[in-house]
Design a protein that fits this description.
Blueprint: H1 13-30, H2 34-48, H3 50-56, H4 62-93, H5 96-117, H6 124-136, H7 138-144, H8 149-178, H9 185-204, H10 212-223, H11 231-252
């Protein structure tokens, strides 16, 4: 019997938003540049390569790797090599601070890859780190396009805190559906500091206020999680609110 071809596209729908919306916001806000565009393209290629990488390292199991490993390796090379070359070219043209920011985001996402190898990436902790790392891809792109380090860090901080809250909200919603006996405390341990930190961040860097619409909505879901049957609707709502936050950042200039 023929083996059905497995999709090699990343399956984490929220991750598309966590990467793409901050990147687009940064490029539109700054007007973009060759270096910033190269960094953004590199980040996109690396993200699309993440699913083939999971198969190659056995994150989906040995059977999946045996059946689809050859195709995944070809796709990984096709995407991974240009991602490295284009990203290196972009960073070479960018201010030195961009390289530091790229390194920080890469370390965070490297932790996620390690968790995938250990097959523990579905936890709230790992998804929280992934959200911060994905949002961080916009920081070097922004600096490479002319933004100040302060502005780039404020944007990264705003997106990170908002996305941390959305991750906690989604996990709270799923926990309610599964009726797990575990306490809600672990999710609030993450969400409470993130929500509290947003205020001081905005006070120090008012530009980070763009994240408020998304953060407030996530806190509402966290406090009163809807049924899991509304998960798709929640995903659409968070996408729209992410775009609203991005538009707010752009309008604030």
């Amino acid at each position: 019997m023929a083996i059905r071809a497995r999709s090699l596209w990343p399956r984490e729908h929220g991750a598309y938003v966590q990467l793409a919306v901050p990147l687009v916001t940064a490029l539109v806000l700054t007007g973009g540049s060759v270096a910033g565009g190269a960094i953004a393209i590199s980040a996109g290629l690396a993200f699309v390569a993440s699913e083939p990488l999971r198969i190659v390292i056995g994150a989906h199991g040995l059977r999946v790797r045996a059946q689809h490993g050859d195709r995944a390796r070809r796709r990984l090379a096709l995407l991974g090599i240009p991602a490295v070359l284009v990203g290196a070219a972009g960073l070479a043209m960018a201010p030195r601070a961009a390289m530091g920011m790229a390194a920080m985001a890469t370390v965070l996402l490297g932790f996620v890859v390690h968790a995938a190898w250990r097959r523990t990436e579905g936890t709230a902790r790992v998804e929280t780190i992934a959200a911060i790392g994905l949002a961080g891809a916009a920081a070097p792109a922004a600096v490479a396009s002319g933004a100040s380090v302060r502005t780039a860090l404020a944007m990264w901080g705003g997106w990170s805190l908002a996305f941390v809250l959305t991750v906690a909200a989604v996990h709270q919603m799923l926990a309610r559906h599964r009726r797990t006996p575990t306490s809600n405390a672990p999710r609030w341990i993450v969400a409470a500091p993130a929500s509290v930190a947003l205020g001081p961040l905005i006070a120090v860097a008012p530009r980070a206020g763009f994240a408020l619409p998304l953060a407030i909505a996530a806190l509402g879901v966290l406090a009163m999680p809807p049924r899991a049957t509304r998960l798709r609707a929640l995903g659409v709502a968070l996408l729209v609110l992410s775009m609203v936050s991005g538009a707010t950042a752009i309008a604030a200039g």
